[in-house]
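Lecture 7 notes: from sequence to structure.
We start with the chain below.
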Amino acid sequence: MNKRQFCVTLLCLISLITQAQRVRISGTVAGQPADWSKLTMRVWETAYTAGIQQHVPYRVINSTITDGRFSFTIDDVKDIVFFSIGYKKPDSDNFFPFVELYPAEPSDDLQVDLGRIHSDTFKVEDLIAPLIRYYTTQVSWAGKGVAKLRVLNAFEREAFRRDSIRRTQPAILVGPNNAISVSEATLPEYESRMKTMLASVDAVSQGLNRKMADLLRAIAMGRNLSIYYGMLTGNLSVLKYYSPSTYEKDREKMKALYEKIDKGPAIAESIGALVPDFLQMTMAKANLLRALLQDEPAVYGQIKKNYSGLLRDKLICNYFLENGRNLPNIKELLDDALGFVKTASCLDLLNNTVRTSTPGMPAYAFALPDANGKVIRLADLKGKVVFIDFWYTGCGACSKFYLTVLHEVEKTFAGREDIVFLTISIDSTKEQWLKSLKEGRYTSTDAPNVINLYTDGQAAEHEIIKWYKIRGYPQQILIGKDGKIIRATSLQLPVDPLISIIKGALGTAG
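Predicted structure tokens for the same chain:
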């Protein structure tokens, strides 16, 4: 082989290696609104539960829609990754996934038909403005690596079929007189659906590697058991609240029902740790066991005791990311977790939680514009207690908190120069924000101790929102005179308790 032939051969080998680490997904879509110019793909190299997945680092890949066609390439794929394809609304964190948390493997070359895009406009109780939801009802796949995605399509068709049947039946209101009987009556449905899904995996298992087949089984188990476990936990709460005198007897019946559940095939922890649905199921199981068994430790203790390795580390991260803002002993638990968690990505997430939620940690050094365009920095407020309220136009809960609580609290501290009430809006446009300021439903504009800021058109993509991992609104943070966090959880309180907490931060008597 001469030098030229060697170089050509080497380039071909490099090309083959590169292709083996790449995933291509091309497709078609129809019926999208005229102002849509692109679709967005989010790619995760490690998966958590769906509720917090958007707050875990991910890659963003955009594809222009040309004549109804689009194409994505995921480079440097070393193992299974999870991806979502959807529409990302400009100047907003709203993402409408048409394909959500699907797995892909190195060298997959897939084609997807998203079908026709539909939209609904509907009203949500806590939102003043109506919401628009975009969705598709028919997704089909082809190409290299398609078997696993067709199985997931089969899962979704089965779930849709059963949900359609359920919607035609009268709704059942669960109360203390029927909580147990409803739990017993619905168990066969969940077990049947799980068996159907597992059978669809077995039907194509020869076209899958062992790891992917087990991953799909973990998805089937997770999607069904997490819902059923959650229902049992909710029904136990009904019994405990409405029938305390017979609760111990009822709990024994529910415990017997739990022991009858077909919990599916054994799944290795190393596989379960990769699957969002399996993680969700395991968290739901821990919550259920906490309610069922008197001697069972709290969820954190169960995770620490019953699991190991990557699965334990991911469950611990899920626990903090889902519950951290409501844990009064978060610092104690985080210090403990950081002593045994070994997975690097989990340690990063936990350290971020420590950084953003724990009393005594430095607050985010923001620099945001006010209504006149003047940039206000946290450093400008040193020596003052700072109470921050995050909100957005259309958030009914935000308006309610201001009108019924915060406005009264502001008046209590009027005239004091050592405290400032700071509001930060995530409205996507300045015009919308200024209009809402004038309406007076979310904040004050004439109080001397109130400063109104907004995220300068970056909406929920602004770094301050990501730093504090804010997922729901309104959200409040209390910062001390030294610029350190006093409290970042549980501040949506009635007037008097909130006044007491702020007086404590100021160092004044209650």
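Points to note: DSSP finds 16 helices and 16 strands in the chain. The domain at 367-506 is CATH 3.40.30.10 (Glutaredoxin).
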